[in-house]
Amino acid sequence: MPSGHRRSLLKHVSDTTLAVPSLSRLWTRDYLLQLGSVFLVSSSFYVLLPLLPVYVTDVWAGTLSQVGLLATVMSASAVPARLFGGWACDRWGRRPVQIGSLALFALISLGYPLASSLTALLAVRLLYGLPFGGVTAANVTVTSDLVPEQRRGEGLGYYTLAQTLALAIFPVLAFRLLGRFGYLWLFWLAVWLLLGSVILAALIRHPDVRDPAVRLNLRGLLERRIGWLSLLEFLVALGYAGAISFISLHATRVGVSNGGIFYSLYAAGAAVVRPVAGKLYDRRGPNLPVLGGLGGMALAYALLAVWEAPAGFYLGSLVYGIGLGALTPSVTAMAVSLVPPARRGAATATLFAGFDVGMVVGPLMTGLAAEGPGGYRLMFALAAVLIVPAVVLYLLKVRPQFEGRRT
Description:
This protein is mainly α.
């Protein structure tokens, strides 16, 4: 075939497969199914998240460094999986990546009730990061396709709110069910929630957004326009890793018997702010939700570091949810606004790959700080200090790029 005709045919294939259905409203059938699927997969994740640190120290007599390693190995496998998942969404379409990753998520989660040693648990956690990376890349991309451009901040705000509702319910519920049913029952609950997520995702009529011409190389995997935003996510994740990995253990130190209350208060703060932050982003841009979110996170870390009492723990948890709840949907909306539809998979994967790398480094760094003379006070203080370079990066690089190159 002559090269000119081949290029013409390729252009025709790309143009037809990149067509996205016109969306005139936010609350469509497919958007609601997507929110339901996201809620269930998030519920499965948040059943395990607060329990695993306690499980490691209680059942396997693990150290704080080993608790941090548990988070590190998952994030280490999630980084390449997230990049590949974003590329696959752009190359083959969203549907096979989303459903396939969710099904694999459920299959690998069967390893938790079967793990017979700490080493086996670490191996399961390493494998768990693979579908986690694919699911998160696909979910953000699918949601971005299903919401109208003029309501993108609001639509992604409700997407993250679905995750927040799972966070509000399941960590506290998991601790309450633990005393009655034990760890094994909760591991199985996580599997069943994932199966429900697969079913709802299979019912979605996914827009046919794909580009058969995209290559599996560094340029295809990474979206260079998202580089500064990805670095911002990396800095945020360094402190977040400590808060998430060790908060259940810190709660016991300050007199809070149920560490899951952190997640409920965090979720309450995020639930209140996310719809407001999304609408604010759509109407006035990202400055206030992003800078306000970073400031809220810094304040929360300071409260957790200085006020080592139940009241300080509760207030810090609530403020943390407000801060991160404003930041996350705004940064995500910025990323998908910088690229055309056919590159949304790579854009979201690049964005959250930075977060994943931070989650690899963060637990080890914060775990060492927590085990040192300064303990958790030093760990949270370090997390607060890391917000400063994130603010500087936003002002000097992220904001100018967004204002000058928005597509």
